[in-house]
Design a protein that fits this description.
92 residues; Alpha-Beta Plaits; globular; ABM domain-containing protein
């Protein structure tokens, strides 16, 4: 199992819009991305995290190069971000 953790700095006023981006692309992520197994939205006072589960680290890294991630997800979130995202891949 591998995890892709993306931590986002998003102002409270923009969190509903960010959650809408998450909801819009959750099913396409699970249905079309190789090795995708789960996707969870974690909202904390200080930030928002999206935790993606994959079968391998290679599939997690491949998603970061995909059009779904770069054009759709990043494109939708970019105007809502207060800072560059923190992107980490973990193997378990």
């Amino acid at each position: 199992m591998a995890y892709l953790q993306i931590t986002l700095k998003i102002a409270n006023a923009n969190r509903a819009a960010a959650a809408a981006v998450y909801q819009k692309y959750k099913a396409p992520f699970l249905d079309t991305i190789a090795g995708a197994q789960s996707k969870e939205l974690l909202v904390r006072d200080e930030d928002v995290q999206v935790l993606h589960g994959f079968d391998t680290v290679e599939h997690a890294n491949a998603y970061l190069q995909s059009a779904l991630f770069n054009a759709d997800v990043v494109g939708g979130l970019k105007p809502l971000l207060d800072a560059a995202p923190d992107v980490r891949v973990y193997a378990s």
